[in-house]
Amino acid sequence: MNRIVLLGVLSLVVVGCGPKPPAQPEGPPPDRFPPGKEWIMTPPTAEDAFYGVNQASKVQPSLAKTVATQRARDEIARSVSVKMASIVKDFMEQSGIGDAAQALEFSQAVSKGIADVTLEGSIIKDTYFESGAGGTTYYVLVEYPIGRAREMAMDQVRQQAQKEEAQYNEWKAQQGFEGLEKELEKLNGTE
């Protein structure tokens, strides 16, 4: 009996010490996309622009493109401005197996704050889509020129300065009216 237990333990140790299977790379293989679409796996970088890449899978191709574009712009906005409030909610559910599978996906993207203004001038530089049984997957590359980001930041600084100057002028005018009222009260009190 002890011999059987000992052989069982030894066989587990030998099997456990055997060679490990080769590690599988994460994500899709690099040659999965056609030539010229390398930006999907490796987003471009440049000194004069910000780039955002994202994808969305939907049954409706136009919705897939819209959601992918919004996600790519959100990616840029997070790079450009820390004051950006961005929420992307994805809900996915699938039931069934194979061709009988039913999938439900809900995406909601909300961006507010400075990004509403900051990303004016961003452009869709490139797109790629794949259609399958589950719908269409859109990949979108969005470019936002840094010069435009600088212009927008300067415009915001100017607007804030004008707002503060207007508030100061209003305060000074209020003080002037209060002083005038006091002088009129003095005149009315002496007559």
Notes on the protein architecture:
With 191 residues, the protein is an alpha+beta fold. The protein has a domain at 34-145. It contains 4 helices and 5 strands; from the N terminus they run H-E-H-E-E-H-E-E-H. The protein has helices at 2-16, 61-80, 115-118, 146-190; strands at 49-58, 84-95, 102-113, 123-132, 135-145. Strand 2 and strand 3 form a beta hairpin. The radius of gyration is 31 Å and the shape is elongated. The N and C termini lie far apart (124 Å). The mean pLDDT is 74.
Summarize the structure.
This protein has 191 residues and is of the alpha+beta class.
Features:
4 helices, single chain, 191 residues
Low-confidence stretches: none
Strand content: 25-35%
What structural class do the secondary elements suggest? alpha+beta
Number of separate helices: 4
> Averaged pLDDT, please?
74
Order of helices and strands: HEHEEHEEH
Characterize the biggest β-sheet.
3 strands, antiparallel
Shape: elongated
What's the count of strands? 5
**Physical arrangement of strands within the biggest beta sheet:** 1-5-4
- Terminus-to-terminus distance: 124 Å
Specify the oligomeric state: single chain
Helicity level:
40-55%
Query: Whole-number radius of gyration?
Result: 31 Å
Mind sketching the topology for me?
Blueprint: H1 2-16, E1 49-58, H2 61-80, E2 84-95, E3 102-113, H3 115-118, E4 123-132, E5 135-145, H4 146-190
